[in-house]
Amino acid sequence: MIGHLGINVPDLGRAVAYYDQILPLLGFETFFGDITQHSYRPADGKRGTYLFLYPATDPAPEYSRERTGLQHLAFVVPTRTRVREVADAAAALGSDIVHAPREFPEYPPPYYATFWTDPHGFLLEAVCHHDRD
Fold first, then answer.
1. Orientation of helix 80-92 relative to helix 12-22, angle to 10°
2. Other Cβ atoms closer than 10 A to 92
3. Which of 17, 73, 77, 110 could form a disulfide with 82 if both were Cys (CB 3.0 to 4.6 A apart)?
4. What's the pLDDT band for 32 if we cut at 50, 70, 90?
5. Cα 101 to Cα 73: distance, rounded to the nearest angstrom
6. Distance separating alpha carbons of residues 78 and 72, to the nearest angstrom
7. What gap in Å lies between CA 73 and CA 90, rounded to an integer?
8. Are 64 and 51 in contact (CB under 8 A)?
9. The overall pTM is greater than 0.90
10. pLDDT recorded at residue 67
11. How far apart are CA 53 and CA 45, in angstroms?
C-alpha cells in the first residue's frame, strides 16, 4: 500500500484553494499544512493514501502528463452519482473536463468515471467500480 503521494505545484496557495473544495467530494480532509506544504488524508479515520502538496522550487516548464512522470491520479468513489457530482464541482471550479462521466468498456467492468484537469494541468479521475447510484 502506498503511504502518501507528494506533488510539486507551481502555486501552493492556488492548489490548496482548489483541492480544499474538490477533495472532500473524493473522501479526503485536510491533515495539516503551512507555507512549505499542505496535506490531505482519508476522511473519517479511514485508512488509505495521504496526498501532500509542495511548492515547486524548480522553474521547469509547465507540467505535462505526456512526459515522463505522473500521468494521472485516480480517486475511488462509492457511487456513480458521486462521479457526476465531482465532474460538476470540477467544472464549476473552471477545470477542463477531459472525459465527462461515463462507462469505460475498455477497462474491467464496472468502470464508471470522469477525468478532469486541476488548475496546474494535473489529470485527475473519479471512478466508481460499482453499478450503483
1. 140
2. 10
3. 77
4. very high
5. 16
6. 20
7. 15
8. no
9. yes
10. 86
11. 20
